[in-house]
Amino acid sequence: RLNLLTQCFAFGLFYLCFRLLALERFLFLAALSVLKSAGSTHDWVGPPNPLSNLRPIIYHIPDNETELEKRLRNLRQETEDWNHNFWAKQNITFSKEKEAFIISQLKAKGLTLRDEDGRRRSLSSEEMATFYKNFLDKNRVRHANYNKEWYRRNFTITLLMARVTLNSMWRTVTERQSSKKNGTPTS
Predict the structure, then answer these.
(1) Tens of pLDDT along 101-143?
(2) Are residues 82 and 137 in the same domain?
(3) Which chain positions lie within coiled-coil regions (predicted)?
């Protein structure tokens, strides 16, 4: 009964932290949006998210953004959000399973999580290596699927970047040709 109460409390605390971090991310993004609207011409990079360990990015939106540039920016943002969600979930799962492993190993030795001085007990590197290997083995397919999707997205982003660059170069060349015909100097 006490164990169930402890689990409920831990879940409630975890949920509260998760919601606060979501609020923190929202406030960060809102603050950056305000900064961007003040005339920034660069992307904004925030501090690492405590759950995913990834830095959020607010991408600059140029005034004369083309449809192709918009597609690229949106895909980059969607990929960043997808990446953040994957690693936040993965890191939470890892932390929970690691904690459960440590507790179970200590319990098997007849030890509690804290020593008589109140310090947290730990396991040896060899003992933890067992957990790390098992965790990686158990999540092998998930990580392989993540990598495939990550490569697919990055390949698409790279192709879009190449198209945006070529379109920009073409636009520059045609504008120069047009201005030469009209006798207007180019900048």
Answers:
(1) 999 999 999 998 888 888 999 999 999 999 999 999 999 999 9
(2) yes
(3) none
Enter the tokens of residue 97: 């399973």
Alpha helical stretches, state H, the chain: 2-37, 67-108, 125-138, 140-182
Confidence tier at 37 by pLDDT (50, 70, 90): low
pTM, full prediction: 0.72
> Containing domain of residue 114, as a range?
63-187
Quote the CA–CA distance of 141 and 145 in Å, as a whole number.
Answer: 6
The answer to whether 156 and 75 have CB atoms below 8 angstroms apart is yes
CB-neighbour burial class of residue 88 (10 A; exposed 0-12, middle 13-18, buried 19+): buried
What letter represents residue 102's amino acid? I
159 and 68 Cβ atoms separated by less than 8 Å: no
Q: Picking from 4-8, 102-106, 128-132, 173-177, which range would have the lowest pLDDT averaged per residue?
A: 4-8
24-28, 84-88, 170-174: lowest mean pLDDT where?
Answer: 24-28
Q: Which of 41, 60, 79 is the last residue of a domain?
A: 60
Tell me the two tokens of residue 79.
Answer: 């990929």
Q: Specify whether the CB–CB gap between 58 and 44 falls below 8 A.
A: yes
